[in-house]
Amino acid sequence: MKIVVLAGGLSNERNVSLSSGVMVAEALRARGHQVALTDLFFGLEDYEGTLESCYQAPIPQHWKRVDPKAPDLALIRASRKDQSRSQFGPRVLELCRTADIVYLALHGDCGENGSLQAAFDLLGIAYTGSGSFPSAIAMDKDLTKRLIADTGVKTPAWRKVVYQKWNIPALCDETRLPVVVKPLDSGSSIGVSIAHTRQELERALEECLNYGGRVVLEQYIQGREIQMAWLCGRTLPSIEIIPKEGFYDYENKYQPGATVEITPAPIPPEWEAAIAKATDTVFRTLGLAVYSRADFILTEDGTPWFLEINTLPGMTPTSLVPQEAAAVGIDYGRLCEMIIEESLKAREG
What we know:
D-amino Acid Aminotransferase, Chain A, domain 1, Rossmann fold, alpha+beta
Protein backbone atom coordinates (compact mmCIF):
# COMPACT_ATOMS: atom_id res chain seq x y z
CA MET A 1 0.00 0.00 0.00
CA LYS A 2 1.17 3.55 -0.75
CA ILE A 3 0.92 5.69 2.38
CA VAL A 4 1.78 9.32 3.02
CA VAL A 5 2.48 10.05 6.69
CA LEU A 6 1.66 13.69 7.34
CA ALA A 7 3.34 15.27 10.37
CA GLY A 8 4.58 18.59 11.74
CA GLY A 9 2.47 21.50 10.60
CA LEU A 10 2.10 24.92 12.20
CA SER A 11 0.96 23.85 15.64
CA ASN A 12 2.14 24.10 19.24
CA GLU A 13 2.29 20.31 19.13
CA ARG A 14 4.50 20.31 16.04
CA ASN A 15 7.47 18.57 17.67
CA VAL A 16 5.29 15.81 19.09
CA SER A 17 3.76 15.30 15.66
CA LEU A 18 7.13 14.98 13.93
CA SER A 19 8.19 12.32 16.43
CA SER A 20 4.92 10.43 15.89
CA GLY A 21 5.42 10.66 12.13
CA VAL A 22 8.89 9.11 12.22
CA MET A 23 7.70 6.20 14.36
CA VAL A 24 4.68 5.52 12.15
CA ALA A 25 6.66 5.78 8.91
CA GLU A 26 9.38 3.42 10.13
CA ALA A 27 6.85 0.87 11.38
CA LEU A 28 4.86 0.85 8.14
CA ARG A 29 7.97 0.53 5.98
CA ALA A 30 9.09 -2.38 8.13
CA ARG A 31 5.79 -4.08 7.29
CA GLY A 32 6.39 -3.74 3.57
CA HIS A 33 4.43 -0.61 2.70
CA GLN A 34 5.62 2.23 0.48
CA VAL A 35 5.75 5.22 2.81
CA ALA A 36 6.45 8.90 2.25
CA LEU A 37 6.89 11.07 5.35
CA THR A 38 6.42 14.81 4.93
CA ASP A 39 5.91 17.94 7.00
CA LEU A 40 2.50 19.50 6.39
CA PHE A 41 3.82 23.07 6.69
CA PHE A 42 7.18 22.87 4.91
CA GLY A 43 6.19 20.22 2.40
CA LEU A 44 8.78 19.47 -0.27
CA GLU A 45 10.35 22.93 -0.43
CA ASP A 46 13.91 21.54 -0.31
CA TYR A 47 13.19 18.27 -2.14
CA GLU A 48 14.07 18.17 -5.83
CA GLY A 49 13.06 14.57 -6.53
CA THR A 50 9.85 13.29 -8.04
CA LEU A 51 6.72 12.62 -6.01
CA GLU A 52 7.22 8.88 -6.50
CA SER A 53 10.76 9.03 -5.17
CA CYS A 54 9.40 10.41 -1.86
CA TYR A 55 8.31 6.87 -1.01
CA GLN A 56 11.97 5.79 -0.83
CA ALA A 57 13.41 8.96 0.70
CA PRO A 58 15.30 8.61 4.02
CA ILE A 59 13.29 9.19 7.18
CA PRO A 60 14.73 12.16 9.13
CA GLN A 61 15.87 10.71 12.45
CA HIS A 62 16.32 14.11 14.11
CA TRP A 63 12.54 14.47 14.12
CA LYS A 64 12.19 11.60 16.56
CA ARG A 65 13.27 13.46 19.70
CA VAL A 66 10.65 15.73 21.26
CA ASP A 67 12.09 19.01 22.54
CA PRO A 68 11.01 19.71 26.14
CA LYS A 69 9.68 23.14 25.14
CA ALA A 70 6.87 23.90 22.73
CA PRO A 71 8.05 25.42 19.41
CA ASP A 72 8.17 29.11 18.53
CA LEU A 73 5.57 29.25 15.77
CA ALA A 74 6.52 32.75 14.66
CA LEU A 75 10.07 31.61 13.93
CA ILE A 76 8.80 28.52 12.13
CA ARG A 77 6.43 30.56 9.98
CA ALA A 78 9.20 33.04 9.12
CA SER A 79 11.61 30.27 8.13
CA ARG A 80 9.44 28.84 5.35
CA LYS A 81 10.74 29.90 1.95
CA ASP A 82 7.22 29.92 0.61
CA GLN A 83 5.63 32.70 2.66
CA SER A 84 2.13 31.72 1.54
CA ARG A 85 -0.61 31.81 4.17
CA SER A 86 -1.52 28.23 3.28
CA GLN A 87 -1.12 25.52 5.91
CA PHE A 88 -0.08 23.21 3.07
CA GLY A 89 3.58 23.41 2.15
CA PRO A 90 4.82 23.07 -1.45
CA ARG A 91 3.54 19.94 -3.25
CA VAL A 92 1.95 18.43 -0.13
CA LEU A 93 -1.48 18.03 -1.72
CA GLU A 94 0.04 16.67 -4.91
CA LEU A 95 1.93 14.06 -2.89
CA CYS A 96 -1.17 13.11 -0.86
CA ARG A 97 -3.11 12.49 -4.08
CA THR A 98 -0.59 9.79 -5.07
CA ALA A 99 -1.29 7.74 -1.92
CA ASP A 100 -3.88 5.09 -1.12
CA ILE A 101 -4.34 6.81 2.24
CA VAL A 102 -2.80 9.62 4.28
CA TYR A 103 -1.84 8.70 7.83
CA LEU A 104 -2.47 11.77 9.98
CA ALA A 105 0.35 11.90 12.53
CA LEU A 106 -0.64 15.51 13.17
CA HIS A 107 -1.52 16.94 16.58
CA GLY A 108 -3.04 20.26 17.58
CA ASP A 109 -5.27 22.69 15.75
CA CYS A 110 -3.76 22.25 12.30
CA GLY A 111 -4.58 18.54 12.23
CA GLU A 112 -7.25 17.81 14.83
CA ASN A 113 -9.80 20.61 14.46
CA GLY A 114 -11.48 19.11 11.40
CA SER A 115 -10.36 21.65 8.79
CA LEU A 116 -7.76 19.35 7.23
CA GLN A 117 -10.23 16.47 7.21
CA ALA A 118 -12.82 18.67 5.48
CA ALA A 119 -10.29 19.67 2.80
CA PHE A 120 -9.38 16.04 2.19
CA ASP A 121 -13.06 15.07 2.01
CA LEU A 122 -13.61 17.66 -0.73
CA LEU A 123 -10.54 16.46 -2.61
CA GLY A 124 -11.41 12.76 -2.26
CA ILE A 125 -8.23 11.96 -0.29
CA ALA A 126 -8.57 9.11 2.22
CA TYR A 127 -7.12 9.75 5.69
CA THR A 128 -6.91 8.13 9.10
CA GLY A 129 -9.07 8.83 12.13
CA SER A 130 -12.35 10.64 12.65
CA GLY A 131 -14.14 12.82 10.12
CA SER A 132 -14.21 16.61 9.98
CA PHE A 133 -17.28 17.44 12.08
CA PRO A 134 -16.60 15.08 15.03
CA SER A 135 -12.96 16.20 15.03
CA ALA A 136 -14.02 19.84 15.30
CA ILE A 137 -16.34 19.06 18.22
CA ALA A 138 -13.77 17.02 20.14
CA MET A 139 -11.14 19.75 19.75
CA ASP A 140 -13.38 22.24 21.56
CA LYS A 141 -13.22 21.38 25.26
CA ASP A 142 -16.31 23.43 26.12
CA LEU A 143 -18.49 21.97 23.37
CA THR A 144 -17.32 18.44 24.16
CA LYS A 145 -18.27 18.79 27.83
CA ARG A 146 -21.65 20.31 26.92
CA LEU A 147 -22.50 17.26 24.84
CA ILE A 148 -21.21 14.80 27.45
CA ALA A 149 -22.87 16.47 30.46
CA ASP A 150 -26.28 14.81 29.84
CA THR A 151 -25.00 11.30 29.08
CA GLY A 152 -24.43 10.14 32.65
CA VAL A 153 -20.66 10.50 32.33
CA LYS A 154 -19.37 12.74 35.13
CA THR A 155 -17.23 15.71 34.13
CA PRO A 156 -15.84 18.45 36.42
CA ALA A 157 -17.79 21.71 36.58
CA TRP A 158 -16.46 24.24 34.08
CA ARG A 159 -17.04 27.46 32.27
CA LYS A 160 -15.71 28.88 29.03
CA VAL A 161 -14.06 32.30 29.31
CA VAL A 162 -12.96 34.67 26.56
CA TYR A 163 -10.91 37.51 28.05
CA GLN A 164 -8.20 40.11 27.61
CA LYS A 165 -5.44 41.25 29.94
CA TRP A 166 -7.50 44.07 31.45
CA ASN A 167 -10.21 41.78 32.87
CA ILE A 168 -7.91 39.17 34.45
CA PRO A 169 -8.31 40.74 37.95
CA ALA A 170 -12.11 40.42 37.74
CA LEU A 171 -11.81 36.82 36.60
CA CYS A 172 -9.59 36.07 39.57
CA ASP A 173 -12.11 37.66 41.93
CA GLU A 174 -14.96 35.45 40.72
CA THR A 175 -13.10 32.13 40.26
CA ARG A 176 -13.15 29.54 43.00
CA LEU A 177 -9.79 27.91 43.77
CA PRO A 178 -8.22 25.50 43.12
CA VAL A 179 -9.00 25.53 39.41
CA VAL A 180 -7.54 24.02 36.25
CA VAL A 181 -6.88 26.54 33.46
CA LYS A 182 -6.93 25.06 29.93
CA PRO A 183 -6.72 26.70 26.51
CA LEU A 184 -10.01 25.98 24.76
CA ASP A 185 -8.63 24.07 21.80
CA SER A 186 -5.07 22.87 22.36
CA GLY A 187 -3.63 19.49 23.27
CA SER A 188 -0.57 17.88 24.87
CA SER A 189 -1.36 19.92 28.01
CA ILE A 190 0.19 22.98 26.38
CA GLY A 191 -0.80 26.04 28.40
CA VAL A 192 -2.53 23.95 31.08
CA SER A 193 -2.01 25.01 34.70
CA ILE A 194 -3.42 24.06 38.08
CA ALA A 195 -3.92 27.23 40.10
CA HIS A 196 -4.10 26.91 43.90
CA THR A 197 -3.60 30.61 44.64
CA ARG A 198 -4.72 33.89 43.11
CA GLN A 199 -1.16 34.60 42.00
CA GLU A 200 -0.97 31.25 40.19
CA LEU A 201 -4.31 31.92 38.52
CA GLU A 202 -3.15 35.35 37.32
CA ARG A 203 0.00 33.80 35.84
CA ALA A 204 -1.98 31.03 34.16
CA LEU A 205 -4.44 33.46 32.57
CA GLU A 206 -1.64 35.71 31.38
CA GLU A 207 0.11 32.71 29.80
CA CYS A 208 -3.07 31.64 28.03
CA LEU A 209 -3.28 35.02 26.33
CA ASN A 210 -0.56 33.52 24.11
CA TYR A 211 -3.09 30.89 23.01
CA GLY A 212 -5.86 33.30 22.10
CA GLY A 213 -7.31 34.26 25.47
CA ARG A 214 -9.99 31.57 25.27
CA VAL A 215 -9.92 29.08 28.13
CA VAL A 216 -11.91 26.58 30.09
CA LEU A 217 -11.81 27.10 33.86
CA GLU A 218 -12.40 23.63 35.23
CA GLN A 219 -13.10 22.40 38.76
CA TYR A 220 -10.01 20.72 40.17
CA ILE A 221 -10.65 17.09 41.04
CA GLN A 222 -8.11 15.30 43.23
CA GLY A 223 -7.42 11.76 42.11
CA ARG A 224 -5.45 9.38 39.92
CA GLU A 225 -4.76 10.16 36.27
CA ILE A 226 -6.20 7.39 34.12
CA GLN A 227 -6.45 7.28 30.35
CA MET A 228 -8.10 4.78 28.05
CA ALA A 229 -7.94 4.24 24.30
CA TRP A 230 -10.77 3.23 21.99
CA LEU A 231 -9.60 1.22 18.97
CA CYS A 232 -11.54 -0.37 16.13
CA GLY A 233 -14.74 -1.07 18.03
CA ARG A 234 -13.46 -1.69 21.55
CA THR A 235 -11.72 -0.09 24.48
CA LEU A 236 -8.15 -1.04 25.39
CA PRO A 237 -6.84 -1.59 28.93
CA SER A 238 -6.59 1.58 31.00
CA ILE A 239 -3.25 3.17 31.77
CA GLU A 240 -2.35 5.07 34.93
CA ILE A 241 -0.06 8.08 34.69
CA ILE A 242 2.09 8.98 37.69
CA PRO A 243 4.34 12.02 37.04
CA LYS A 244 7.50 12.01 39.14
CA GLU A 245 7.08 15.77 39.62
CA GLY A 246 4.09 18.07 39.18
CA PHE A 247 1.24 16.95 36.93
CA TYR A 248 1.06 15.38 33.48
CA ASP A 249 2.09 18.51 31.56
CA TYR A 250 3.85 18.87 28.19
CA GLU A 251 7.34 18.21 29.53
CA ASN A 252 6.31 15.18 31.58
CA LYS A 253 4.40 13.70 28.65
CA TYR A 254 7.25 13.53 26.16
CA GLN A 255 10.48 13.23 28.11
CA PRO A 256 11.46 9.58 28.72
CA GLY A 257 11.53 8.70 32.41
CA ALA A 258 9.51 11.74 33.53
CA THR A 259 6.48 9.63 34.46
CA VAL A 260 5.61 6.15 35.61
CA GLU A 261 3.01 4.57 33.30
CA ILE A 262 1.23 1.36 34.31
CA THR A 263 -1.04 -0.63 32.01
CA PRO A 264 -3.39 -2.15 32.82
CA ALA A 265 -3.93 0.34 35.62
CA PRO A 266 -3.88 -1.33 39.08
CA ILE A 267 -7.58 -0.78 39.80
CA PRO A 268 -10.52 -3.10 40.62
CA PRO A 269 -12.34 -4.69 37.64
CA GLU A 270 -15.51 -2.72 38.34
CA TRP A 271 -13.58 0.57 38.16
CA GLU A 272 -12.01 -0.53 34.88
CA ALA A 273 -15.48 -1.36 33.55
CA ALA A 274 -16.79 2.07 34.57
CA ILE A 275 -13.96 3.82 32.72
CA ALA A 276 -14.53 1.64 29.66
CA LYS A 277 -18.24 2.44 29.65
CA ALA A 278 -17.53 6.17 29.97
CA THR A 279 -14.94 6.05 27.17
CA ASP A 280 -17.33 4.25 24.86
CA THR A 281 -20.15 6.69 25.68
CA VAL A 282 -17.98 9.73 24.92
CA PHE A 283 -16.67 8.19 21.70
CA ARG A 284 -20.13 7.37 20.37
CA THR A 285 -21.78 10.58 21.57
CA LEU A 286 -19.29 12.68 19.63
CA GLY A 287 -19.57 10.46 16.55
CA LEU A 288 -15.87 9.62 16.46
CA ALA A 289 -14.33 6.90 14.33
CA VAL A 290 -11.41 4.45 14.29
CA TYR A 291 -9.51 5.39 17.46
CA SER A 292 -9.09 7.94 20.22
CA ARG A 293 -7.85 8.35 23.79
CA ALA A 294 -10.00 9.61 26.66
CA ASP A 295 -8.55 11.25 29.79
CA PHE A 296 -10.02 10.82 33.26
CA ILE A 297 -9.40 11.61 36.91
CA LEU A 298 -10.32 8.62 39.06
CA THR A 299 -11.39 9.56 42.59
CA GLU A 300 -10.85 7.34 45.62
CA ASP A 301 -14.43 6.01 45.46
CA GLY A 302 -13.82 4.67 41.92
CA THR A 303 -15.67 7.41 40.04
CA PRO A 304 -14.14 8.34 36.65
CA TRP A 305 -14.36 12.07 35.91
CA PHE A 306 -14.06 12.73 32.18
CA LEU A 307 -11.69 15.53 31.17
CA GLU A 308 -11.29 15.42 27.38
CA ILE A 309 -10.79 13.13 24.40
CA ASN A 310 -8.00 13.16 21.82
CA THR A 311 -8.92 12.16 18.26
CA LEU A 312 -5.34 11.80 17.00
CA PRO A 313 -3.42 10.44 20.00
CA GLY A 314 0.35 10.65 20.04
CA MET A 315 2.40 7.81 18.58
CA THR A 316 5.79 8.87 19.98
CA PRO A 317 8.17 6.53 21.84
CA THR A 318 6.51 7.57 25.14
CA SER A 319 2.89 7.68 23.94
CA LEU A 320 0.09 5.85 25.68
CA VAL A 321 -2.07 4.23 22.99
CA PRO A 322 0.80 2.00 21.76
CA GLN A 323 1.40 0.88 25.36
CA GLU A 324 -2.27 0.00 25.82
CA ALA A 325 -2.32 -1.88 22.51
CA ALA A 326 0.80 -3.82 23.49
CA ALA A 327 -0.98 -4.92 26.68
CA VAL A 328 -3.43 -6.92 24.53
CA GLY A 329 -0.79 -8.27 22.14
CA ILE A 330 -0.97 -5.63 19.38
CA ASP A 331 2.52 -4.52 18.41
CA TYR A 332 3.26 -1.03 17.10
CA GLY A 333 3.35 -1.90 13.41
CA ARG A 334 0.11 -3.86 13.57
CA LEU A 335 -1.51 -1.00 15.50
CA CYS A 336 -0.69 1.39 12.64
CA GLU A 337 -2.09 -1.06 10.10
CA MET A 338 -5.29 -1.53 12.09
CA ILE A 339 -5.80 2.23 12.16
CA ILE A 340 -5.34 2.36 8.39
CA GLU A 341 -7.65 -0.57 7.68
CA GLU A 342 -10.44 0.80 9.91
CA SER A 343 -9.99 4.31 8.47
CA LEU A 344 -10.47 3.05 4.91
CA LYS A 345 -13.77 1.51 6.02
CA ALA A 346 -14.77 4.78 7.68
CA ARG A 347 -14.00 6.80 4.54
CA GLU A 348 -16.02 4.40 2.41
CA GLY A 349 -18.92 4.90 4.81
